[in-house]
Design brief:
By secondary structure, this protein is of the alpha/beta class. The chain is built from eight helices and nine strands. This is Carboxylesterase.
Length: 286
């Protein structure tokens, strides 16, 4: 079932990122690493101050595929790193400079860099794709569409996927964002993550705010159901009182002490590291 998407930019996120206290259990270990010749294609690395115990994470930000900058997501990189993972926060080319599927190719290139270089930076060679909003779409597509990881021989290192408030099933297009981004694609149904669900995918963690007016939580429900139908492990969480930005902002320190999003993701990541999948359930969190 198709779900509409609306404007997904998080603004003024740069102010939040600047004001929120830095997580004391992690730090930035590298900045502005180029992973492709295009000048914009750089990433920053974050690591725990303690030992690395989890798969490395590539975090992809949202912003309606036309807005965003990796430096505004330091809080997310440090929060995820505090769980015990090496984290890369990567830029990708945006509209109007780049059209579909260029931004997915850029995300694949970032994944490839991390797959090759994570161990040299103290991380695990096992990887997790993670993202919020449009970034969650990117993560799901790179993981599931065979043109990306599988085509480049990178699928085996993928341990899991984490999607926050992602649009996964929104065709036919009826909004400005979806029409601008995907309206000219000759095979529009191929742009939908829901149409790339196949056997053999790694475990997924899908989270959404129940009060999200921009990306309906039905997107996550639909994808979770399709994955479960093929016996793919899924952890699906829904958060009461949260809209579109709150699940992302709840990762930050000290906000994560009041909202369980970071802890929930941490439990999922630990299940991957131990070789056991997270429970197949849907839970509502206050």
């Amino acid at each position: 079932m198709k779900q509409s998407i609306h404007v997904m930019a998080i603004s003024p996120l740069h102010i939040f990122n600047r004001l929120v206290p830095k997580h004391p259990a992690s730090h930035q270990v590298a900045k502005g690493i180029s992973f492709e010749p295009a000048s914009r294609l750089k990433l920053d690395l974050y690591a725990p101050k303690g030992p690395v115990t989890l798969p490395s994470i590539l975090f992809l930000y949202g912003g309606s595929w036309n807005d965003g900058e990796r430096g505004n997501y330091r809080f997310a990189g440090r929060a995820l790193a505090s769980l015990g993972a090496l984290v890369a926060v990567a830029d990708y080319r945006l509209q109007p400079e780049a059209e579909y599927p260029v931004f997915l190719e850029d995300c694949t290139a970032a994944y490839g860099w991390l797959a090759e270089n994570a161990e040299a930076h103290g991380g695990s060679k096992r990887l997790v794709l993670a993202g919020h909003s449009a970034g969650a779409y990117n993560a799901a597509m790179v993981a599931m569409d065979r043109r990306y990881l599988q085509h480049h021989g990178l699928r085996e290192q993928l341990a899991g996927v984490v999607g926050l408030c992602g649009p996964y099933d929104f065709f036919p297009f009826d909004g400005e964002i979806s029409m601008r981004t995907f309206g000219a694609v000759p095979d529009p149904e191929s742009t939908q993550p829901i149409n790339h669900v196949s056997a053999g995918l790694p475990p997924f963690w899908l989270g959404a705010g129940l009060d999200d007016p921009l990306v309906s939580p039905q997107n996550s429900r639909t994808l979770a159901s399709a994955l479960r139908a093929l016996d793919i492990d899924v952890t699906h969480r829904e958060y009461e009182g949260m809209a579109h930005a709150e699940p992302l902002l709840a990762l930050s320190w000290p906000l994560n002490r009041w909202r369980p999003v970071l802890a929930d993701i941490g439990k999922f990541l630990k299940s991957l590291d131990s070789g056991h999948s997270a429970p197949k359930n849907t839970q509502k969190a206050a």
